[in-house]
Structure formats: C-alpha cells, structure tokens
Amino acid sequence: MPASSYSQAASMLLRHVRPTSNAMCRGLGCTVQSRAFGIKTTLRVQEHISKLIKKDKSKNKNKADEMQVTGPGPFHDTILESMPSELRVPRNPPPMREDTMDHTWNTSDLEALDVGPTKHRVPDLISDKIALWAVKSARKPTDIFFRNKYIHRSVMLEVVAAVPGMVGGLIRHIKSLQGMRHDGGWIGHLLHEAENERMHLMTWMEISKPVLWERALIATVQTGFFAVFSLLYMVSPRTAHRVVGYLEEEAVTSYTHFIGEIDAGRIENVKAPEIAVAYWNLDPESTLRDVVLAVRADEALHRDTNHHFSDRIRAKRESLFEDMDTDSNKPHIKY
C-alpha cells in the first residue's frame, strides 16, 4: 500500500478524533485525565500508522531487490496452457489422390497421369444442356477480362471452384441429420474436394499477388456464385453436380493452355512454392509447370466425380456403399 494512502488515512482519523474528544469534553465537563486520554490515543494511532508505513516500505524494497537478483517471474500464457492436446497435433490436408504420398512426384510422373484434357460429357437432358450453356456463358467474360493472365485467372477459378464441395457437403449433412440416416458416403468426398480446391488457391496466392480491385472483384463473384449455387443445390442436386462437372472441364482446358504458355516461354517457369511441394509431395526442384500439372490432375478427378454424382442421382443409386471396394479385415461402416 503506498505511503500516501496511510498518511491520508491518518489525517482523516485525526480530524475525526480531535473534534469528537473536544465536543465530549464540553458536553460532559471532562477532567484533565480524560483530555490526556484523548491526546494519548491520538499519539498511539499516529505511532501505529508510522510502523505500518515503515513495514510496507521494507517489504517493497525486499521485493525490488529480489527482482534484481532473480529477474522477472515466468510469463504464463493461459491460452496456451488451456489448449487441448488434440489441437497441438498438426492436421495437414490430405491430397486428392491417395497414391500421392507413396513417392516423390517428378515431371515425368505428372505427365504420365491420364487426365483426358479433351474429355467432355455430351448433355442429353435439357437441364444438362442448360448447365453447359451457363458454364460456357460464364467463361466468356473471364476470357475477356483476364486474357492470358493465367495465374490471376487461376485465382478466380479456385475461389469459385472451392464453393460447390462445401455447399454440397453442408446441405447433405443437414439432410442426413434431419432424416436421421446415413448420407451414402458423399459428405466426406465433397468436403475433401472443397479443401483440395482451397489448397489450389493457397498455392496460387503464393505466386500471384492480386491488387485490391482484383480482390474486390473476386470476392463479389464468389459471393454471387455461393448464393446461386446454394439455391440450385437445394432445388436440383443432380443439375448442380452437372454444372460442377462442366466447370471442371473448363478448368482442365484452362490449365492445359496455362502449360502451353509456360512451354512457349510467355510465362516464367519459376520454382514451385513450398506449400505445393509439401501438399503434392513434389520433387524439391519442381517448377511452376509441375504445379500446374498437379492441379490439372486434381481438376480432372473433380470433373469425373461430379459427372458421376449427377449420374447416380439420375439412376437413383446415391449410396456409394454397395459399390465401394471393401477390406475384409475392416468393419464396413455406413456413415
């Protein structure tokens, strides 16, 4: 307690004791002994407060000396101390293909992947034709705006492409809860697709640095697409997956052109960012071209998967469990 606080307390006490003792003496006709008792009490109070001040000063001095010798005490981070052990374990997002982590991928391995760059699903239903027309129409302003700026085009593409998997997974998750039944094995695949597309975006952001107005445009397009696609998925999941299938066809085409621009020397084949090397288990000496090859392979897989999802809904065979490859040593769980 500061010495000034003790002094203030003493002054207040004395201002109270003296008038009170004088008033009592006047009213009661107190003797000299009683007046002496009042004075003696006042002196005792002053003496007691002086001792408290000295004791407090001595304690603060000892604490200061101890701090100089031992230094300040350890800092306690309460957030870190209360962090559950599960959150301390890094959860790296898994790549799209299971064989990715089997070995380090080089250019020859990536080029050997059968991605079907010209593969196209011919629409036979009116809804499929509308889906194809919508995707082709949406590509035209992108071609006009970005032209041969393929890195910036990729940022725009991945911001949009990361939406369908998350929307589909969320809606099917809610329906599974409401119906109190398993989903048929779709939710995990859809969320994995969304995370994979997000990793594409994180990779391109390491290479591209969009300016403010480009970020604003991308955010606006993504917000509009999220609203429209969410409504479409609730109304017709089959058409929604067909739209994604055609969108991924365009993505494969764009990345094929991207590779052509690198091969022609119009885009510098820089070193691959660390996030790409770690995510796809690429050779440490990999380049931008290798990254584009890996991303294109993922997009080809999304293309085939979403066209297949649309076909399964049409055939009324949504559950994947009956057609899955099962391991006899593991329980076959429907989730």
Would you write up a description of this structure?
The chain has 335 residues and is mainly alpha-helical. 70% of the residues lie in helices and 0% in strands. Helix 5 packs parallel to helix 9, helix 6 runs parallel beside helix 8 and helix 8 runs antiparallel to helix 9. The longest helix has 39 residues. The model has no long low-confidence stretch (mean pLDDT 83).
Q: What general form does the structure show?
A: elongated
Report the oligomer: single chain
What is the end-to-end distance?
Answer: 64 Å
- According to DSSP, the number of beta strands is 0
Main sheet? none
- The radius of gyration is 37 Å
* Fraction of residues in β-strands: under 5%
Which H/E pattern describes the elements? HHHHHHHHHHH
- As residue ranges, the low-confidence spans are none
What is the tally of helical segments? 11
Architecture blueprint of SSEs:
Blueprint: H1 3-28, H2 32-70, H3 78-81, H4 107-112, H5 126-146, H6 150-179, H7 186-207, H8 212-235, H9 237-263, H10 274-280, H11 288-314
Helix pairs in contact: 1-2, 5-9, 6-7, 6-8, 6-9, 8-9, 9-11
Identify the notable features of this structure and list them briefly.
335 residues, mainly alpha, 11 helices, 0% strand
Quickly describe the structure.
The chain has 335 residues and is an all-alpha fold. Helices cover 70% and strands 0% of the residues.
